[in-house]
Amino acid sequence: MASSPPPSKRRRKNQIEDVPNDASVQKKSPLIIFAHDATLFVTVAVFFWLENRESIVELWKEMIGKALHAVDVVTFDYPYFSGGKKGPPPKAEKLVEYHLRIVKDAIAKYPGHPLILAGKSLGSRVSCMVAAQEDIDISAIICLGYPLKGANEAVRIETLLQLTVPTMFVQGSKDALCSLDKLAAVRKKMKFVNELHVVDGGDHYLKIGKKHLESKGTTQEEADDQAVKAVSVFVMKVLGES
């Protein structure tokens, strides 16, 4: 069993920084709320792939924030994992209220900006649940490694079928928690526009094995760039800027 990577000095903050008093900040710059997966700890191999970042959320926060010219990318810890806690996550439904509060606080800080909910695995599922709330206006949802398969091999589709918000999926072709065939079937049933970008050879972390990269003559960085570009094109299209 791989040991836990050394603790990162960088921690997510539940506090949202004050809005910069700068008239040059464009109102169309999106506000992104990015939720983490079930655990903030990863294997040593994944940790060093992330270049010592705390999680895939930290990596994507940098990439997507820059690509979309976001006014801010707000990250946070769910209560069960804040303050150094290491307990198992509760059911996703029990995280919705806290997540929604983070969203509303961010909207109050950045009024008038298009709102995008993003999440990795558990965070993407809770983001979709938050999107079902009728009192917030969401422009798009970005799901990284959506956990379609739940306990006892059950396929969790109810939340996705209720969505009325444009949704982008980024899935690894080798993600054990999301069969691409099953996801394709669910996407056909979804009420609203949705798109999928597949990371060829990617696992649940969207990480590609060394042998697969060598066989394709590509790199992890190139795969990441392609995924970010796909997300950016989708969001810009949704926002009417493409």
UniProtKB/TrEMBL annotation:
Pfam families: Abhydrolase_11. Gene3D superfamilies: alpha/beta hydrolase (3.40.50.1820). It comes from the Eukaryota. SUPFAM superfamilies: alpha/beta-Hydrolases. Residues 1-20 are annotated as: Disordered. InterPro entries: AB_hydrolase_fold, KANL3/Tex30_Abhydrolase, NSL3/Tex30. Residues 69-235 form the KANL3/Tex30 alpha/beta hydrolase-like domain. PANTHER family: TESTIS DEVELOPMENT PROTEIN PRTD, TESTIS-EXPRESSED PROTEIN 30. This is KAT8 regulatory NSL complex subunit 3/Testis-expressed sequence 30 protein. It comes from Macleaya cordata. The lineage of its organism: Eukaryota, Viridiplantae, Streptophyta, Embryophyta, Tracheophyta.
